[in-house]
Amino acid sequence: MITRTFGRKLAAALMASAMLAAPAAEACTGITLTAADGSVVRARTMEFGVDLQSDVIVSPRNYERTGETPDQKPGLSWKAKYASVGTNGAGLPVIVDGLNEKGLSVGIFYFDQSAQFQPYDAADPSKTIAPWQLGSYILDNFAGVEEVKAALPDINVAPVVLEQFKIVLPVHYIVTEESGKSIVIEYVDGKLSVQDNPLGVITNNPPFDWHMTNLKNYVNLDYANVEPKKLGDLTISGFGQGTGMLGAPGDFTSPSRFVRAAFFQTGVAQGKTSDDAIFEAFHILNNFDIPKGSVREMGSDGQYTPDYTQWTSADDLSQKRFYFRTYDNSTIRFVDLLKQDLDAKDIKTIKMDGYETAEEVGN
After folding, report:
1. What is the model's pTM?
2. What are the residue ranges spanned by the domains of the chain?
3. Burial status of residue 110 (CB atoms within 10 A of its CB: 0-12, 13-18, 19 or more)
4. pLDDT tens per residue, the chain (363 residues)?
5. What residues are labeled active site?
6. Are 203 and 254 a contacting pair, CB within 8 Å?
7. Stretch (H or E) spanning 43
8. Cβ distance 91 to 13 under 8 Å?
9. Burial of 325 (0-12, 13-18, 19+ CB in 10 A)
10. How far out from the chain centre does Cα 177 lie?
């Protein structure tokens, strides 16, 4: 068995990629749907300011990993108990968003301004991993949310610089199991925070508890249209459909997206099965799709970097399927994890690239 380290993989990825630039702020949005039969789907958008060159990867059982540390010493070592499938970035052997064979799902979301990871003890690096490795660590080792909760205090997620961007990648995490139980993992002020997520919604900064409190500002929103209102002798009515959601924030900021996602996902007609929920999830996330150029990070040279929706994905936790579409191809494709070789010797890569075509009809 050959031991693989993230450091060698990262170095190879850096040489192969031309992404040596600081990222623009992300604007990712995550939702969770439960079908009438109890099956659960977790879905998200992935926004970034430079091309992540993501692929779908299948990580097999017994795959060996070694954690990264701030001083390049070998960190926590482990061997995967479970196989998993999901997206990576820049050819790295880690999953940014995906699920394992037990139906446990993980999503990594940008958490700029708030993320501050745990202090690193150089004298004892054996429990340390980098922030971008935590998703795969969870998928490799655990079958449910309670297992994750119990294990997190025993590992150290340290401020390791991702050489690709020359920064400590500021992220937080959503973990959802097949039953629908969900948690948010954050590292704030150097301390671990694990919070139950009853909605299954996540966006970006501020911290999760702030977003949940902010929902109280929108207690007036409703799915039903507002009835005509009497003002003295005058009766006024709204302009057509959608008056119940009048006042819902419509911009691309993280707080606004969180509010819209919470209301959209709970208001959608419930599908019978996970197959129905998958397509409902993609319909909801259409509302959060960012065209290239609509959100911009301006540079000192006057040039801008567009933050845009590079891909949208959905995890079917009951059927163990990973669905996705990309900016260049809106056709929904999927990988069935249970049809893959779960005991393969190495990671399998499935390309996400390609362009969609228009089909002529009527002739």
Report:
1. 0.91
2. 6-206+270-351
3. buried
4. 334 444 434 333 433 333 334 455 579 999 999 999 999 999 999 999 888 999 999 999 999 999 999 999 999 999 999 999 999 998 899 999 999 999 999 999 999 999 999 999 999 999 999 999 999 999 999 999 999 999 999 999 999 999 877 899 999 999 999 999 999 999 999 999 999 999 999 999 999 999 999 999 999 999 999 999 999 999 999 999 999 999 999 999 999 999 999 999 999 999 999 999 999 999 999 999 999 989 888 888 888 888 999 999 999 999 999 999 999 999 999 999 999 999 999 999 999 999 999 999 998
5. 28
6. yes
7. strand 40-48
8. yes
9. buried
10. 14
- Which CATH number describes the domain made up of 6-206+270-351? 3.60.60.10
Place of tokens 């479970």: 82
